[in-house]
Specification:
By secondary structure, this protein is of the alpha+beta class. It contains 7 helices and 4 strands. The protein has a single domain, classed as Alpha-Beta Plaits. The radius of gyration is 14 Å and the shape is globular. The structure holds ribavirin triphosphate (RTP). Its EC number is 2.7.4.6.
């Protein structure tokens, strides 16, 4: 069944010029890019996005990182878009991510791990609404 996923290339991925390479992987997989925007994340959006991690010792560092430069926010659509996006992205820690995944191929750091993908259809909806205004999709 066709569904929507929220995927975001984080500031390190944008800074390193990986947007084209990453979008290419989603398109080759057969997923469709239906909306994309290079944008800054303000502190309020960052704190909401990472609200589930607010008690972690690295929370402040995480908010600083995600607000440190533009991100490339995307709505990806297709069959099983959420699970398929996460398979393309790979595990959170790039050191444990297999080669062939985006984090496995392009990351080294558990914090600055290049990309985010929503972990459920429900969270994708919340994240899309957080990052894109209703008129935009
Ligand atoms: P994401 O939401 O970005 O796709 O990441 P995830 O589900 O794979 O992982 P989650 O546990 O939700 O962590 C969110 C982001 O926090 C940063 N992180 N830093 N310093 C650390 O030990 C640490 N652990 C996690 C990463 O940027 C991770 O993607």
């Amino acid at each position: 069944m066709s569904e929507k996923a929220f995927v975001m290339i984080k500031p390190d991925g944008v800074e390193r010029g990986l947007i084209g390479e990453i979008v290419n992987r989603f398109e080759k997989k057969g997923l469709k890019l239906v909306r994309a925007e290079l944008k800054s994340v303000d502190r309020a959006v960052a704190e909401a996005h990472y609200g589930h991690l607010r008690h972690k010792p690295f929370f402040e560092e995480l908010v600083e990182y995600i607000t440190s430069g533009p991100v490339f926010a995307m709505i990806i659509e297709g069959a099983g878009a959420v699970q398929n996006s996460r398979s393309l992205i790979g595990p959170t820690n790039p050191a444990e991510a297999p080669p062939g995944t985006i984090r496995g191929d392009f990351g080294l750091d558990v914090a600055a791990n290049v990309i985010h993908g929503s972990d459920s259809v429900d969270n994708a909806k919340v994240e899309i609404e957080r990052f894109f205004s209703k008129l935009d999709y």
